[in-house]
Design goal:
There is one protein chain. The chain has 206 residues and is an alpha/beta fold. It has one domain: Vaccinia Virus protein VP39 (Rossmann fold), CATH 3.40.50.150. Helix content is 38%, strand content 26%. It is built from seven helices and seven strands, in the order αααβαβαββαβαββ. It is globular and about 50 Å long.
């Protein structure tokens, strides 16, 4: 789709997405998400919902017990949490950089706990090896969280636990970082979002 094919509303959404991805550092990213929060779900619409939905379905296939302890890392407004709740999961913790996004997520009443967090820094307020599953959907992407975030999240996962995340097909440096971690790839699904191919990947911690 060329720029001439966008409606005015679509062009505004595209510009906001570019604005988000061009954040120069974590503080700027947080501030921009705080501004974007009221429009976030309307902007992403149904085209993005396939990612949280399919990630939750994948987790259900891998860990069907509904009482497992789940960390929704980079939870945003709670779209992943909603998808998990639809699959029957009840014990979900949300962490996100943006306080305004977490305010929206809190209103959905699907999380047992919500905490602001910078995934680029050690998550010392969470116990190591305390989660059966970690989901990071739309987190490890351009202008967002670097591979350092994986180093901070993986210790929170129990041995044998499941880590589900998304990555753009074009993001080769991030995919290369995945190969260096102590986990095993067990699922790889490809989807399109706004014409760009994404993978939903599932790993089991060694």
């Amino acid at each position: 789709m060329t720029s001439e094919n966008f409606t005015e509303a679509e062009a505004e959404i595209r510009d906001r997405l570019i604005w988000i991805h061009e954040s120069k550092d974590t503080e700027e990213l947080k501030n921009r998400y705080n501004v974007w929060a009221p429009m976030y779900e309307a902007d992403l619409g149904k085209s993005w919902q396939i990612m949280p939905m399919n990630a939750a379905i994948l987790l259900k296939q891998l860990l069907p017990h509904e009482e497992i302890v789940i960390l929704d890392a980079g939870a945003g407004s709670g779209m992943v949490g909603e998808a998990l709740a639809q699959q029957g999961y009840k014990n979900i913790t949300a962490i996100d950089l943006s306080e305004q996004m977490l305010k929206i997520a809190r209103k959905k009443q699907i999380y047992k706990e919500l905490q602001p967090a910078n995934l680029e820094q050690p998550l010392t307020f969470l116990a190591q090896a305390s989660f059966d599953a970690v989901l990071a959907i739309g987190v490890f992407t351009y202008g967002h969280v670097s591979p350092t975030g994986l180093d901070n999240l993986l210790p929170l996962l129990k041995p044998g636990g499941i880590f589900i995340l998304t990555v753009r097909l074009s993001n080769q440096p991030m995919q290369e970082a995945f190969t260096k971690l102590p986990w095993t790839l067990i699922s790889k699904q490809e989807y399109l979002f706004e014409g760009a191919p994404f993978y939903i990947l599932a790993y089991r911690k060694n």
